[in-house]
Amino acid sequence: MAIRVMLFDERGRLAAQGNEDLLARFHDQGGFAWIDICGAQSQIEAAALGPFGLNPLAHRDAQRQRHPAKYEAFQDHVFLLMHELTREAVHDRISRHQLGIFASGSFLITRHDLPSESVEKYWDQTAGQQQLPRGGIGQLCYFLLRGLADRYLPLMYDIEQRLGEIEDEIFESTSDDLLSELINYNSQLKKARRAYVYQHGVIQELMGGHDHALLAFDEHELTDLYEHFERLASMANLYQELTSDLINGFISVSAHRTNNIMKLLTIVTAIFLPLSLIAGIYGMNFENMPELRWRYGYFGVLAFMLVFVAGGLAWIRHKKWL
Prior knowledge:
Blueprint lengths: L2 E6 L5 E5 L4 H7 L2 E7 L3 H8 L6 H8 L6 E4 L4 E8 L10 E8 L3 E6 L4 H13 L6 H15 L1 H18 L7 H32 L10 H64 L14 H22 L4
Parallel strand pairs: 3-7
Antiparallel strand pairs: 1-2, 1-3, 4-5, 5-6, 6-7
Helix pairs in contact: 4-5, 5-8, 6-8, 7-8, 8-9
Function: Mediates influx of magnesium ions.
Protein name: Magnesium transport protein CorA
Pfam families: CorA
């Protein structure tokens, strides 16, 4: 359903549940309402939300595909634009979508283009309990914010675990797949950190003003939410630095491995180049070469080559080049 509605009486008890047709009843009788909009057509959405008098610029921001998290307070409602993980999000692909929240003392409007895990969770919970939370719309709004924040933490723990595994694999792996994975994590964490910082700022603004009194937010709950996003931003920053260190470490290990290979090839070349020179000299077809008619010339040259190779290897080991 693109638009679904829950109506509550003045005591917060669930009175009706259905589609946008219930909105006329809300405007006539009052009480409380939760309107959830998921991917509705613009005309239908505009017709349903028109009577609520939402700020058109804020509504336009909520409809945009990409916009930084923000908070705005108006005379009779507040607007929160948050970033929530999609259902497909995993630790190596931190995909997000926007969740727009318009809230006042009597209504809550959640607007999103993709399915929202937080909205689904508390929609079902509210429908099952047949009433609003004790704190009303403000409490419900907090639950949604906390729900989307809580989904980030397990994902960050997964990233931490994987980075620890990569740290152990760096010295054993000879493939560039680890480097590609680290570069991906670096990019994902950079974007995630920006999202956390923006949302951390949203909660900070909400705490710093007096507008949150409109929804009767609990200051302790807001403080807890603020600290949660602060921790997420700190973790993203820490893991991004760790990822950068691992990238540099992988490159250093690869360079060291390459240097060892080049050193070995150089040693082999240095030993066998004189042998090639000797073979080249005695491979010439001049008639007046004294050693060509020497009975032990072949064995003498081979013996000289073996002595040269043994002496070269002994000298290299003496210099500790190998």
